[in-house]
Amino acid sequence: MMNPRMMFATTRRVLEQLRHDHRSVALIMVVPALLLTGVYYLFENETLPPGFPRTFDRVGLMMLAIFPFVVMFLVTSITMLRERTSGTLERLLTTPIHKADLLFGYALAFSIMAALQSLVATAVAYWIFNLDIKGGPGYVVMIAVINAVLGVALGLLCSAFARTEFQAVQFMPVVVIPQILLCGLFVARDHMNSLLEGISNVLPLTFSVDALQQIADNTEATQAMWQDAGVMAAIVVWVLVLASFTLRRRTS
């Protein structure tokens, strides 16, 4: 059974480690905003008819969820692998701490960083690049945070199957890139062949893109948006529980 005290102790320890790891903090906080800047200038010189929405308003909105997802997946999987290979995880698991306390403690710590990351990236999108959509920025931040936490959960799960940092990175083409290609960002899902559409319909990132599209098209939160957000949150919890069963003390 989970022990909140143990979980929060793990969260404090991870946050303290991150505070001294300036490169990881820069990767988490700065890189998504820089990538978003690149997306903006990629479409800066496009010529559009009067009243026609900018490409950045559509693509940039989706990147607010995709960039944190990718960054948090990488940071979390590599950090967890280092904990295991260094023996830190083995020492922790000799204490009364439960695996679920450990995993959810890590998830909470990185979720706090993910929330800060999403706030920074969303602020850049709205205040510097004038992102123009119908929905409010609060809903955008909410979906971006859930998406980043999804990256955390998948990173924790995948780290259990990697022995080196290079192997952890190799999960990117398997876990992350297919979701980006099939989430509906590049091609509408109903225009895909039946096999790819069926796969797309069950990928977590698809629900994120659908939720953001609902936010972009409606001034108020819709039932479909809340349903997509609920499904994503449920997937996060399910992945974390699954990761607790696959967690190993150390990598040989």
Automatic annotation (TrEMBL):
Domain ABC transmembrane type-2: 23-250
PROSITE patterns: ABC_TM2
GO molecular function, one term: ABC-type transporter activity
Keywords: Antibiotic resistance, Cell membrane, Membrane, Transmembrane, Transmembrane helix, Transport
Membrane topology: Multi-pass membrane protein
Domain of life of the organism encoding this protein: Bacteria
GO-annotated biological processes: response to antibiotic
Principal cellular location given in the protein's record: membrane
Pfam families named in the record: ABC2_membrane
Example of a GO cellular component annotation carried by this entry: ATP-binding cassette (ABC) transporter complex
TM region positions: 21-43, 63-81, 102-129, 141-162, 169-188, 229-247
Location(s), subcellular: Cell membrane
Entry-linked InterPro entries: ABC-2_transporter_component, ABC2_TM, ABC2_TM_bact-type, ABC_2_transport
Entry similarity comment: Belongs to the ABC-2 integral membrane protein family.
Protein name: Transport permease protein
Origin species: Arthrobacter bambusae
Lineage: Bacteria, Bacillati, Actinomycetota, Actinomycetes, Micrococcales
